[in-house]
Amino acid sequence: MFADLLYAIIIYPLEIFIETVFSVSMNMIGNAGYAIIFVSIAVQLLALPMYKRADEIQEQDRLKQKELSRWIGHIKKTFKGDEQLMVLSEYYRQNDYQPWYSLRGMLPLLLQIPFFIAAYHFLSNCETLNGASFYFLRDMGTPDALLNAGGISVNVLPVLMTVINLVSGIIYTKGLPLKDKLQLFITAGVFLILLYNSPSGLVFYWTLNNVFSLMKNVFMKVVKHPRGILCVISILFVSAVCGKCFMNGAWQKENGILVMVIVFALGCIPAAELILDRFRSRRGRDKTPKTCISAAAKTIFRISSVSIAVLLGVMIPAATIDSSPTEFIIRGHYVSPLVQLIYTSCVAAGLFVLWGNLVFFFASEKSKKILFFLMVSGTVCALADFVFFKQHLNNMSMHMQYYDTFFYSVREILINSGILLFICILLFLLVRFNEKLLQALNYIILVSVTAMSVYLAADIQRVINNTSHIKDDSYYTESDVHFDLDKKGKNVVIFMLDRAFGQYVPYIINEKPGIAETFSGFTYYPNTISFGTNTAEGAPPIFGGYEYSTYNISKRSSEKVSDIQNESLKVLPRIFSENGYKCTVLDPPYYIDLTRKTLEEYYHDIDPDINARYADGVVMTAGEAERDFKYFTHAARINYIRHSIFIASPLLARSLLYDDGSYLMQERIDDRITYSGHKQELEKLWDMTNITESADNTFTVIENDLTHSINIDLQLPDYTQTDDVDNSEFMEEWTWHLSDTDKNIGRDINMYTANQIQTYQVNMSAFLSIGKWIDQLKQNGLYDNTRIILVADHGYWLRAFDDMLYDKDGIVMDLDMFTPLLMVKDFGDGDFETSNEFMTNADVPSLAMKDLIKDPVNPYTGKSINSDQKKDRLQFVYGIDHWYGIHDDIYDMKNWDMVDDEVQSK
Predict the structure, then answer these.
(1) Which H or E run contains 421?
(2) Helix (H) or strand (E) holding 884
(3) pLDDT tens by residue, 198-238
(4) pLDDT for 533-579, tens place per residue?
(5) Per residue, what are the HEC states of 858-892?
(6) CB-based contacts of 94: which residues, under 8 Å, 6+ apart?
(7) How far is CA 873 from the centre of its chain?
(8) Across all residues in the chain, what is the average pLDDT?
(9) In the 3-class helix/strand/coil scheme, how is 668-735 assigned residue by residue?
């Protein structure tokens, strides 16, 4: 544990930096070799001020030792024993020198070690390098083996690396004592032995470092006026990089132009600084700083570094967890989610407090002023972004990947950029004219973020303590989870498949025609809408009907929205229970309030006989729970700090940093944990089915998130979950088959992005699992007397169908966000059918109670439950800050309209 935390503080921040540069380079150019070159340059630029200052300290120590050496030799000859020690100590004191100062000569080597470990760990485990070639390197994931003689392979790159290192060392140690030369030569030998059998990508990186070190030594030791040459080289290099990115089509990629502009601007900084210095010189102004940075500024820098570390390492992840603490716990292996914050806070402390202050300490006085302003303004802007600009960020997985697509309009980006610019100008004025006020402001920020972090942590633990069963591992790993189906009674089963994509059903059936036979008797309703684009908006109508549409909930302004949503979850269980049905509720949607009672207690308020349990992620063994916990812990360590940086960044940079949920990582954390739990529940449906013959009527509602787990690839052709998915031999035939289906369906389907492919795969997986359960119902005589409804709460922004893109006044909406799955099988059997009747997911209560409950009434509002509100009316649906009206046919764009003004007027 201690070693992990030490690694998090010292090494992992550097690894984040290295991986970010590598990932951005890969996104822009798509070649691992070039990405390694950029990583090497970025690391050298980051470490250069520290190396330069360390070299200066080392040189000062050499000169001091040389100055003192004559008298030290005389003292050692003249005095012996304790007397010698006393005289030497006094001599050192008089000359302001300590013997341990000689160890400072090892600073350059000590600084290289963390960078080397970070690069070694990342590049040695980077799967992107496996099989990647770069000119003469055939596979950067293995040793180069460039020479082969008599069946013996010789790795050339490590030898080349060592030669370059020795040449650089010879230049660097010219005129220095033998011990300094030996130190560098021994180090070169150690690296040769250490890296000889390492992946060639890693050796290539370290070879580049040695090349840049050689160039640095040549410029420092040989060239008299290197700044001008370096400026030209810098501009030529970034121009070549941007040109390469442009030729690779990076300008067409999201954020591609932004990255190229940033790279070019960074490359022009040395030239701009040189021009500015010469301008000052011509104006008769000294180009060197007249005064050192003040003591107050140094204090403010340290305060800001701690503040932003607390903000990103504790406060933001704690606020995210606090939104729903129980969702961040692996059921069956309880560990408080607060434990994850220990590691995150260490990473943030290492990133900003340790390395931030190290860079600041080694920087020149001019650079310190720049770093000081960047740290102060960065802290305040990060806090502002987190507090005021969290819009469009909705539901996420426990490893910080958002389920819904987010984007920002030009107007939102401009407002955000304008506010941040105003903050920077205000802080600049405070820096220039009132450092005391600035220091007080930073103390206030530090106290505020610390206090809020403590409050959030306490609230998280309070919620967990109030939901005490979450800590009982046996409650999940040893539970008897079941629901009743009676052979002689009437059974009603509702499956709410979160974000199941209704538009994929024809393609699923065309790919596997046997599914239509399995789902015989079902009617598929493609012309169906939801009332929102997330679960909190789309699920309440499923359980309570039209009264719980987003628009109707908004009219109940005197009540809390959460109370109305929770109320909806009790409507159907209460009605069926009061009509003598044996009721089961498994896994109601996440927004149910269980902070002070268990799920059973929540529904036992209606009827003590209601069977309310968790099944999703519960039907597992203790070993499986521990496996999931280890994977989640790994995911949390990787993603928490990156998510904090993302959410505290300007809107302009968020999509770049989010990178479709990978957070610019090469190791993409997928939904293996959540997928396996959801899949396991559906696979064990028959095991959970308790067959009775007592002529009892039953009602069961099951919510499952399998179709929400899109960040995972499944192995074709059977859509199975494996650790190493390789669909290369199936993809061409698979995508051709899907595209060929439009001849039968009449619509072209887009199937080329990861989201489109993964969404289709998990939808197919859900159909295959539920199909197994349906086959069991048929074999055991339960199918004809069971009414089954498959429904989703909402669709998803996929751009799967071009004919569902709505564009008005520059606002683009993928209307498939409002197209949930709806399939209904009534009592009896028959053929699989498709109906184009206009439906909504608020029709589910009426469909469930049809001919079973006469004139049903909502027991909480006293209003009738029916589908009358759908007839001859415009349906108001809400998505991404806008209201839309739809009627009759969702495929006719004339039937859609943006109705913000109409809704607000009502």
Answers:
(1) helix 410-433
(2) strand 882-886
(3) 899 999 998 888 888 777 766 665 555 666 666 666 677 67
(4) 888 899 999 999 999 999 999 989 889 998 899 999 999 999 999 99
(5) CCCCCCECCCHHHCCCCEEEEECCEEEEECCCCCC
(6) none
(7) 41
(8) 84
(9) CCCCHHHHHHHHHHHHCHHHHEEEECCCCCEEEEEEECHHHCCCCCCECCCCECCCCCCCHHHHHHHH
Non-local (6+) Cβ contacts of 371 within 8 A are: 301, 359, 360, 363
For 602-641, the DSSP string reads HHHTT-TT-EEE--TTTS--HHHHHHHHHHHHHHHHHHHH
Q: How far apart are CA 259 and CA 624, in angstroms?
A: 42
- In single-letter form, the type of residue at position 734 comes to W
Q: Report d(CA 318, CA 786) in Å as an integer.
A: 45
What is the C-alpha separation between 316 and 320, in angstroms, rounded?
6
E strand spans, 13-94: none
Query: Please, which residues bridge with residue 611 across strands?
Result: 584
Q: Which two tokens stand for residue 593?
A: 């309030």
CA separation for the pair 345, 12 (Å, rounded): 12
- Looking up tokens 């610390």 gives 450
Which amino acid, one-letter code, is at 832? F
**Is the preceding omega at residue 845 within 30 degrees of 0, hence cis?**
no
| Dist CA 814 CA 806 (whole Å) | 6
Residue corresponding to tokens 């000569």:
105
Task: Tell me how far the alpha carbon of residue 246 is from its chain's centroid.
Answer: 27
How does DSSP assign 76-95, residue by residue?
HHH--HHHHHHHHHHHHHHT
Asked if residues 739 and 731 have their Cβ atoms less than 8 Å apart, the reply is no
789's tokens: 């409804």
SS3 content of the chain, % helix, strand, coil (to 5): 60, 10, 30
Residue indicated by tokens 């690694």: 7
Return the amino acid letter for 723.
D
Sign of the CA dihedral 173, 175, 180, 183?
A: positive
**Could you give the CA distance from residue 902 to residue 906 in angstroms, rounded to a whole number?**
7
